[in-house]
Write a structure and sequence with these properties.
Layout (H helix, E strand, L loop, with lengths): L14 E2 L2 H18 L6 E7 L3 H16 L3 E7 L5 H13 L5 E4 L9 H5 L13 H9 L7 H12 L8 E5 L6 H9 L6 E5 L6 H5 L4 E4 L17 E4 L3 E3 L2 E3 L4 H4 L5 E2 L6 H19 L9
Parallel strand pairs: 1-11, 2-3, 2-4, 5-6, 5-7, 7-8, 8-11
Antiparallel strand pairs: 9-10
Helix pairs in contact: 1-10, 2-10, 6-7, 6-10
The structure holds guanine (GUN).
Guanine binds next to strand 4 and helix 6.
């Protein structure tokens, strides 16, 4: 468990769930863990196809933070014109390489490529993004494996800031396999024990559903959809939405108005985004343990 980040509050009095601070603490903790284990080589490999600007930035950040945590990172870059066979070949080589512990295929892939067939090559141990059918199946069945990094990052914010979950009402908005569905499973599983409602674009009277929630996780990708009317006094509001607008990246939550009623809230940016990277690193260290890097197998 991470030490607690410093508590800070918004102007409206909500506790700020600071993803940057918690990510930095996670990086420090992982670095200390690797040092203590005698600095074994733990390797995260990324596969980036094409020249999408945001994807390049995300991958660069993942490499930077992996290095800060004391890991080795390897980047495989392929041209936007790469064929399905070339991409699958590159992934298969990383899968077969015993010095690689975690593999991340940056999404989206260019339109002519079939991402599902590429992801299907990843064994659950090396699927540190937790995105494949097998990883999600393991999550559903409660078997060891890697949970997807964004919903896992939300759980780390909740745990680290001491947000109560047992018996609490949680509403997750959005039913994607990347965030909403695994988020529902993580909040509802034994030990966390929230009672979870999964809301989506066809939910009628979302305000009424949300107003009874102790925890709201907004992952619909609809800019500013959660207003103060959706939030009960003191609720925890976590924003996973990412939309591009003229004023930059915006989340699903109207931060300015919600922070005056919420008990705790994530900033955007600086909330769930950095925690996605923190959990990628956490999953990579755990992958190394699963794959037999001996000093890491015990904890
Ligand atoms: N593209 C945007 N976010 C992510 C992520 O978390 N993982 C992968 N693989 N691709 C992404």
């Amino acid at each position: 468990m991470n030490p607690l980040p410093e508590f800070r509050y918004t102007d409206g009095g909500a506790m700020l769930l600071d993803g940057n601070a918690l990510r930095d603490l996670t990086v420090e903790r992982l670095r200390a863990k690797l040092d203590q284990a005698g600095s074994p080589e733990v390797c995260l490999a990324t596969v980036l196809v094409g020249d999408d600007g945001p994807s390049q930035i995300y991958v660069k950040m993942k490499h930077r933070k992996a290095t800060e945590a004391g890991m080795v990172s390897r980047g495989v870059e392929l041209a936007a014109s790469a064929t399905q066979h070339e991409v699958e070949q590159a992934v298969a080589e990383l899968v077969a390489d015993p010095s690689v512990h975690g593999i991340l295929v940056q999404l989206p892939l260019p339109d002519h490529l079939d991402a599902e067939s590429v992801l299907a090559l990843l064994p659950p141990e090396k699927d540190v993004d937790g995105l494949t059918d097998r990883s999600l199946g393991r999550l559903v069945r409660g078997l060891p494996g890697h949970a997807p990094c964004t919903p896992l990052g939300v759980m780390r914010l909740i745990e680290s800031y001491g947000i109560e979950t047992v018996g609490k009402r949680a509403v997750v908005i959005g039913r994607s396999t990347l965030v909403g569905l695994p988020q529902m499973l993580l909040l509802g599983r034994k030990g966390c024990d929230a009672t979870v409602t999964l809301a989506h674009s066809r939910t009628s009277d979302l305000i009424e559903v949300c107003r009874h929630a102790d925890i709201i996780v907004a992952a619909a990708g609809q800019a500013g959809m959660i207003t103060r009317d959706h939030v009960q006094l003191g609720a925890t509001v976590i924003d996973v939405g990412v939309s591009r607008s003229e004023s930059g990246i915006v989340g699903d939550v109207c931060f300015d108005e919600v922070q005056s009623v919420a008990g705790a809230i994530t900033p955007m940016p600086g909330g769930t985004g950095p925690m996605t990277i923190a959990c990628l690193l956490e999953n990579t260290v755990s992958a190394a343990g699963m794959l037999g890097v001996s000093a890491l197998t015990l904890s």
